[in-house]
Automatic annotation (TrEMBL):
Keywords: Aminotransferase, Cytoplasm, Glutamine amidotransferase, Repeat, Transferase. This is Glutamine--fructose-6-phosphate aminotransferase [isomerizing]. It is an enzyme of class 2 (transferase). The gene is glmS. It catalyses: D-fructose 6-phosphate + L-glutamine = D-glucosamine 6-phosphate + L-glutamate. GO terms for biological process: carbohydrate metabolic process; fructose 6-phosphate metabolic process; protein N-linked glycosylation; UDP-N-acetylglucosamine metabolic process. One of its GO terms (cellular component) is cytosol. The lineage of its organism: Bacteria, Bacillati, Bacillota, Clostridia, Eubacteriales. One of its GO terms (molecular function) is glutamine-fructose-6-phosphate transaminase (isomerizing) activity.
Length: 364
């Protein structure tokens, strides 16, 4: 069952290259995206003037990445909501709205309630889910199944990575139908996406290095994850993983926002994990890294292989293979998952079944 791994989480982390491959299988053909369970025509999409992405926890983090991709590629305004907040803030939903719900289990109570509310108000609902036959998959108009296989560990890993992949493919699909990206550009992104499973494997091959880094977190009480743009979204996922399974307080911050208050908390006692892949904001992120360095924080950088610049400003660097920036989250999350995993093990925590948490949250 655990296939020789000590925990389901570690097994599932290692299953990610396969999960990524399975999820793209048959969906990337001749330079375009084919989503069989999604049937949005140009006429239908032309009506859409607003997108909401609604989800909880890790799935919500995948939605944050989805927002940038859909806005950038399909030129549609997107808001991302936590499902338990969505219904109560009076979102403006009508038949010009596209609602995307993301749920590994397809049974999360708040996500399901949001889906039903959106449908009642006339929205078109696309679900991204990992469980065939789940309530979410049955009730949505369109479905993108993630083919991660059963995820047992409470901490989501392979489901998240395939949700990201689902958002990439949906973003491209919307751009394709709307004609907002040149075919050539779509082809380029698809070529890069096809490389991701083997690049993910390359990241996994650095496991020993990350395990070693994790040892220095055993006594840590607070940690920060910082980044800009898509790196910030992944930072949130990294912080959640660390909190969830190692019980270390962790906070993700938009790097440029630190100096508006939170920087006061950064000392030599607070390690900072700084994600810096997004080329358009790279220099700005490095300026923020220097701000935390100036407070004596130990900084672990995360950037593309081949970038020799970051090492000058931080204490350690973890490298991921180079890809296009929109796909970087598919690689940068892996070291963060491994880091949390090894910190959790080193602290003697119950990795697969963290205290107070359940795999599927079926109460609101
Ligand atoms: O099954 P879902 O994707 O709807 O679950 C949503 C969250 O409960 C889930 O992602 C949770 O945040 C994970 N335990 C995080 O690792």
């Amino acid at each position: 069952e655990k296939g020789g791994y000590e925990h389901f989480m570690l097994k599932e982390i290692h299953e990610q290259p396969k999960a990524l491959r399975d999820t793209m299988l048959g969906r990337l053909k001749d330079g375009s995206v084919v989503l069989e369970e999604v049937d949005l025509t140009l006429e239908q999409l032309a009506r859409i003037n607003k997108v909401y992405i609604v989800a909880c926890g890790t799935a919500w983090h995948a939605g944050l990445v989805g927002k940038t991709l859909i806005e950038r590629w399909a030129h549609l305004p997107v808001e991302v909501d936590i499902a338990s907040e969505f219904r109560y803030r009076g979102p403006i939903i009508d038949d010009h709205t596209l609602v995307i719900v993301i749920s590994q289990s397809g049974e999360t109570a708040d996500t399901l309630a949001a889906l039903r509310e959106a449908k009642n108000r006339g929205a078109r609902v696309v679900a991204v889910t990992n469980v065939v036959g789940s309530t979410v998959s049955r009730e949505a108009h369109d479905v993108i199944f993630t083919w991660a296989g059963p995820e047992i560990a409470v901490a989501s890993t392979k489901a998240y990575i395939t949700q990201l992949e689902g958002m990439v493919m949906l973003g491209l699909y919307l751009a394709q139908v709307k004609g907002t990206l040149p075919q050539e550009k779509i082809g380029e992104i698809i070529t890069a996406l096809k490389l991701i499973p083997e690049q993910a494997q390359e990241v996994l091959n650095q496991e020993d290095l990350i395990k070693e880094l994790a040892q220095s977190f055993v006594k840590v009480e607070d940690a920060f994850f910082i980044g800009r743009s898509l790196d910030w979204a992944v930072a949130m996922e990294g912080a959640l993983k660390l909190k969830e399974i190692s019980y270390i307080h962790a906070e993700a911050y938009a790097a440029g926002e630190l100096k508006h208050g939170t920087l006061a908390l950064v000392t030599e006692e607070t390690p900072v994990i700084a994600l810096a892949t997004q080329r358009d904001v790279y220099d700005k992120t490095i300026s923020n890294v220097k701000e935390v360095k100036a407070r004596d924080a130990r900084v672990i950088g995360l950037t593309y292989k081949g970038n020799t610049n970051m090492a000058k400003s931080v204490d350690h660097v973890i490298y991921v293979p180079e890809t296009i920036d929109e796909l970087a989250p598919l690689l940068t999350v892996i070291p963060l998952q491994l880091l949390s995993y090894y910190v959790s093990v080193a602290r003697g925590c119950d990795v697969d079944k963290p205290r107070n948490l359940a795999k599927s949250v079926t109460v609101e």
